[in-house]
Specification:
Length: 130
């Protein structure tokens, strides 16, 4: 069964450029704030719980995967624009679809990372209440 792909204009993938760029900027800011938090923990004399360390490792891994998926989405978006420009509309549409799927994957990872971040705050609040 063949999938009938709707033709895209060159501007459709171009609409994702600002969105993906802002998303990558947000992911980078999350990474930098997490790196600063880890550096603060390592310089602190207060012992860090294993649950907190596990949580930080998970978040680092997720942020790396979010960034990778975002960059790949951006690259496929550019590739789809090139293909559409060169007249390969069906291929360009399929590559654009793959770009959208990677963007969706990146956003899902972002939600998972946010949930883990909230868990980290709950661990910290639990420590403070003791």
């Amino acid at each position: 069964m063949l999938i009938d792909v709707a033709p895209l204009s060159l501007t459709t993938p171009a609409l994702l450029f600002p969105a993906i760029s802002l998303l990558l900027l947000a992911y980078t800011n999350r990474f930098f704030s997490l790196a600063a938090l880890i550096r603060n923990f390592s310089g602190s004399k207060v012992p860090v719980q294993q649950a907190q360390i596990k949580n930080l490792r998970q978040r680092i891994s997720l942020i790396r995967r979010m960034q990778e998926a975002g960059v790949l989405s951006f690259a496929l978006c550019v590739l789809s624009m090139m293909m559409i420009y060169l007249g390969f509309n069906k291929s360009g549409s399929l590559v654009f679809g793959a770009s959208l799927l990677l963007l969706l994957y990146s956003l899902i990872l972002s939600v998972v990372e946010i949930r883990i971040s909230v868990d980290a705050l709950n661990i910290h609040l639990k420590e403070m209440s003791q």
